Amino acid sequence: DAGVTQSPTHLIKTRGQQVTLRCSPISGHKSVSWYQQVLGQGPQFIFQYYEKEERGRGNFPDRFSARQFPNYSSELNVNALLLGDSALYLCASSLPSGGAINEQFFGPGTRLTVL
Amino acid sequence: GQQLNQSPQSMFIQEGEDVSMNCTSSSIFNTWLWYKQDPGEGPVLLIALYKAGELTSNGRLTAQFGITRKDSFLNISASIPSDVGIYFCAGQLYNNDMRFGAGTRLTVKP
Of A29, A54, A115, B23, which is the most exposed, with the fewest CB atoms less than 10 Å away? Predict the structure, then answer.
């Protein structure tokens, strides 16, 4: 079975632009979470979606938004990009009971560079 | 308050030695997890802990969920070169928010 896939693998944008990152969960997984990982730090939780509904949100500005599609894939959108948004964006999927994250499996990430 | 303090930041050990790392917090977590991340890849789940006091092993890895639910440790026995990487602890809060530690960078010298 394929693991979590993310696209694109790398992306370069300029300040003020908008970006859309994509994630396909493991087959059968209904929950997708997004994380931002700045170099040298642990991942920071952005969103969790389960059954197309937002179930958790981290401490990120409204410039960050996400959605989950009927096939459980997900998109993360970031508007008005800032230099500080440069990071590895990780997607994780899980097969939760009751909507909890529990054991998550991560994709390889999308490396976003904002110039 | 809900931050995880992971220590040590880095470790340099000889192949065959045992390793211990831990995470503490002032907050209570529902679940503790340990991940390993190699360069250019996403974190890989090593061990998940769901109950206070739970002790779980996965091969040479052993982890425990602290009784107070505010801490966890990970031990690696008889380290080998492929254990090199960054190890992260993560704790899940009641609202599904997952908090990660800053990581422990492990270097194993042959």
Answer: A115
- Which pLDDT value is given to residue B37? 96
Q: Does B14 touch chain A (CB under 8 A)?
A: no
Pull the structure tokens for residue A108: 């390889």
pLDDT (0 to 100) of residue A102: 66
Q: Verify whether the Cβ–Cβ distance A45 to B45 is below 8 Å.
A: no
Exposure of B7 in the CB half-sphere (CA atoms within 13 A): 4
Alpha-carbon distance of B50 to A101, in angstroms, equals: 12
Q: Where do the DSSP E strands lie in chain B?
A: 5-7, 10-14, 19-24, 31-37, 44-49, 55-58, 61-65, 71-76, 85-92, 98-100, 104-109
Q: What is the pLDDT of residue A99?
A: 45
Peptide bond into A108 cis (omega under 30): no
Question: Closest by alpha carbon to A22, among A47, A43, A2, A5?
Answer: A5
3 state SS of B59: coil
Q: Which residues contact A56 (CB under 8 A, 6 or more apart)?
A: A33, A45, A47, A48, A101, B95, B96, B97
Q: What integer pLDDT is reported at residue B100 of this predicted model?
A: 93
**Does the CB of B1 have a partner CB in chain A at under 8 Å?**
no
* Exposure string over B15-41, b if 16+ CB within 10 A, otherwise e: eeeebebbbbbeeebbbbbbbbbeeee
Q: What is the mean pLDDT of residues A58-69?
A: 95
Whole-angstrom distance, CA of residue B50 vs CA of residue B110:
35
Report how far residue A63's alpha carbon sits from residue B53's, in angstroms, rounded to the nearest whole number.
40
